[in-house]
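User: Good morning. I'm curious how adenosine-5'-triphosphate would be positioned relative to this chain. Could you predict the structure with it bound?
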Amino acid sequence: MSDIENEMDVDAPAPSKDITFSSEATKGKRTTANLPVEAEDSLPWVEKYRPTTLDDVSGHQDILATINKFVDTNRLPHLLLYGPPGTGKTSTILALARRIYGAANMRQMVLELNASDDRGIDVVREQIKTFASTKQIFSLGGPAAKGGSSTAGYKLIILDEADAMTNTAQMALRRIMEKYTVNTRFCIIANYAHKLSPALLSRCTRFRFSPLKEGDIRVLVDKVVEEESVKIGSEAVDALVKLSKGDMRRALNVLQACHASSEFVPAPKQVAGSVIKLTVEYLGTPLRAKGAPKIPDSEIKRENITTETIYNCIAAPPPDAIKEIMSTLLKTSDVTSCLNTINSLKVSRGLALADIITALSEELVKLEVKPEVMITWLDGLAEIEHRVSGGGSEAIQTGAVVGVVRGGVELMN
Ligand SMILES: Nc1ncnc2c1ncn2[C@@H]1O[C@H](COP(=O)(O)OP(=O)(O)OP(=O)(O)O)[C@@H](O)[C@H]1O
Ligand SMILES: [Mg+2]
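Assistant: Good morning! Here's the predicted structure, ligand included:
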């Protein structure tokens, strides 16, 4: 419920504003207009740029078109949105609720429960049932429904992260969903559909949010880069978009982290008579003394964010390091020297074996080799990855990687 409550708390400083139901004025300005100035300043970009209307959601065109049609014809079924993190499920449903009811009415008409709330059997029996079983007395027509469709005669119950609900609670939901369909719609959001009870699944219209396409992520990243005046080259944006693997939240968080660390601070220049000349400039946001005036953003000098910064921030192994490992493994027949090269690269570039395995398998599949060679590689790397994630020793498993790749190469000859 946090999202909605925050909004309402911030929304309603003056009572007069409540009475006029100026939903139009507040709608779509959840993070920018409604928050106090300081909050907006310190808000993480994922929240600052959370889509407020369905049109702001990037990608998922077919899903959005279908949902829009449901609302237009006033035939909203129970919904199930599922898919990997950071693809816009929560944002979509909040934007949908805002579209149906308008920002001012959301508090009365929407019950949002997520993993931070207790959602055991008691909550289903009490809270959800109470909310679902009460009808609103006044119709939402007139000024109150401005910006939302005035005919919506149902309330919305959003169960976010529903795969974390207990089994018994899911069971109890089944009957409640059926019984109160007249005046309520459920929207269930989950990462994994298989963790939900099949009976619950069959009561909902399912939409799978696939990982976002690179183009869709780029649209928002470009917008943020422009609005926050981030200094970043286009190859670095390419790398960021590619490395975020369809997760918009990750893309924005990494961008913000890189932006913060790109601050360029002149160190105190040399003190007269001092022996050491301090003319070095260093990177990083300086700690400000309490009460010291804030430096305006425009006056802060920033370094250009490079591809390397992005790789470092995500802690992905840089492509040139992987290339070097690949060519060593493919060309050097002496296993010990292979192992030494990889070990020294791991130390000098700070690489983790798990990341090397992922990157290596992505590169190896691109090669054209005999099927049995490819099978040896893929099967072997999968085994090693499993053992590493189970706590296998880095040193020994690094040896195993060398063994597997070299074993494949030997098969080639
Ligand atoms: N399709 C999208 N369009 C625009 N922004 C998006 C999109 N998807 C994600 N974002 C950005 O990522 C943030 C997180 O998105 P959201 O909370 O909707 O993800 P989610 O799918 O609910 O993830 P989770 O499964 O982890 O709850 C949003 O605040 C927004 O800034
Ligand atoms: Mg979510």
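The first strand starts at residue 79 and ends at 82. The mean pLDDT is 81.
Let me know if you'd like a different ligand tried.
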